[in-house]
Design brief:
Length: 129
């Protein structure tokens, strides 16, 4: 029973996922601090009240949604400019190795071989490819 758990826990995918969750949580805390402590007060200095939670249109309170939308846009921009774009540039500059695609399953390899054999045979009896 414990060997099955050990095999599961030590698989590459599980460990990679665990690392991604921890790094993602740390990145989320960093971006939350950036939004709450730096950007929101800056918006407040430029345009008045930095907290939109009290904003309402009639009976509909849209302020909390605007706060969440603002935080999401900042997080998405931070993720793109500080993670996705640098990794793409490092990969393009050959400083990071590109991850090779996984080998095809035996079924896919067999289907590809059949496809290639059929393509070499030429058109079918009624001129079909």
């Amino acid at each position: 029973m414990l060997t099955g758990f050990r095999d599961f826990a030590l698989r590459g995918n599980v460990i990679g996922l665990a690392v991604a969750v921890v790094v993602g949580a740390a990145f989320n805390a960093l971006i939350d601090s950036l939004v709450v402590d730096i950007l929101t007060p800056t918006v407040g200095l430029l345009g008045g009240e930095p907290d939109f939670s009290a904003l309402a249109v009639g009976p509909v309170r849209v302020g909390s949604f605007l706060n969440a939308l603002f935080a999401f846009l900042i997080k998405a921009a931070g993720l793109y400019f500080f993670v996705v774009l640098p990794v793409a540039r490092l990969t393009a500059a050959k400083l990071l190795p590109a991850v090779p695609p996984p080998p095809p399953s035996p079924e896919v390899a067999a289907l590809r071989e059949i496809r290639d054999l059929l393509a070499r045979q030429g058109p079918g009896p009624r001129g079909e490819p």
